[in-house]
Design brief:
The protein has one domain: YlxR-like (Hypothetical Cytosolic Protein, Chain: A). It starts with 7 loop residues before the first strand and ends with a helix. The chain is built from 3 helices and 5 strands. It is α+β, with helices and mostly antiparallel strands and 88 residues long. The strands form 2 sheets. Strands 4-3-5 form a 3-stranded antiparallel sheet, covered by helices on one side. A two-stranded antiparallel sheet has the order 1-2. α1 runs antiparallel to α3. The structure holds zinc ion. Zinc ion binds next to β5. The site of zinc ion has 7 residues, from β5.
Length: 88
């Protein structure tokens, strides 16, 4: 418990700890629109997800997950993230 480096965060889908750079951080802007916080600089609540298509795809259809995200994500955003994982 005490050995987790402080840059590790938990994926909301698989609940595993990963270094921040291996995760996407999803935030919401003032109008509650979800977006990806690529630089981890946005203040406020954020949810982390692994940069792999499996975890990202699950974001769109898990009730529990959308709860921690404050709502469901638009398919567009999910597709965008999956696309980007393919180019890493
Ligand atoms: Zn994951």
């Amino acid at each position: 418990m005490s050995s987790n480096p402080k840059n590790y965060r938990m994926c909301v889908v698989c609940r595993k700890m990963h270094p921040k750079q291996d995760l996407y951080r999803i935030c919401r802007d003032e109008s509650n629109t979800p977006f990806v916080d690529y630089l981890f600089k946005v203040e406020g609540r954020g949810a982390y997800v692994c940069k792999n298509a499996e975890c990202i795809a699950t974001l769109g259809n898990k009730k529990k997950v959308s709860k921690s995200l404050g709502g469901t994500l638009p398919q567009e955003l999910i597709d965008q993230m999956i696309k980007e994982t393919g180019t890493i």
